[in-house]
Amino acid sequence: MDIQKLGVRDDELMAYISRANLSVIPIHGAFRYDIARDASSIDHNLKAILGVESNVVSFAQVLQAVDPISKTLFQEQSIGQIGKHDCFHTNEFQLKNGNIVKEFYKFDYHPDDYDKRSPTHISGQTTLLSKVA
Fold first, then answer.
1. What is the full DSSP assignment across 99-128?
2. Which is the most buried residue in 106, 111, 128, 130, by most CB within 10 A?
3. In this predicted model, what pLDDT tens digit does every residue of 46-83 receive, in sequence order?
C-alpha cells in the first residue's frame, strides 16, 4: 500500500497507523549515526516512529525515546556490539510512545582499524513492528 497515493503526509503517518490501518506495518525508517559528532541523520519514517521533531538527533535523544524497561537491552544491543560485529540485528524493544521496534546496524570502522576499536559511523534501519495503544 502506497500511503502517499492515499494522501497521507509524513507528519500524519503515526495518526494514520493508530486508526487501525495496520496494513502499513511493518514500516521502516533509516538512519546514519556519526559517532564523532554524536549526530544521527534520520528519515521521515524514523522521525514518526520515534516521535521526534528533528531530522538530526543525538544518541541521548534516541535513548530518551526508549522505554525505561528496554533501555538496558537497547544499549547492550546498539553500542554494546561495537567491535564484535560488522552487522547486527537487535531483539524487539519498546519505545516510550508504545511503538515496538527492532533495528539493524552496520558498523563502519576506520580502514586501518583491524581490531575494530574505532568505529566512525553506524548506519541502519529501524522497523516498526506494532503500535501499542
1. EEEEEEEEEEE-TT-TT---EEEEEEEEEE
2. 128
3. 999 999 999 999 999 999 999 999 999 999 888 888 88
pTM for the whole structure? 0.76
Look at the block and give the residue holding cell 490501518. 21
CA distance 31 to 126: 8
Give the domains, in start order, of the chain with CATH numbers: 27-131 (3.30.450.20)
Read off the C-alpha cell for 46. 524514523
For residue 10 the three cell numbers come to 509524513
CA 104 to chain centre: 8
Distance of CA 31 to the CA centre of its chain: 7
When mean pLDDT is compared across 23-27, 40-44, 88-92, the lowest value belongs to 23-27
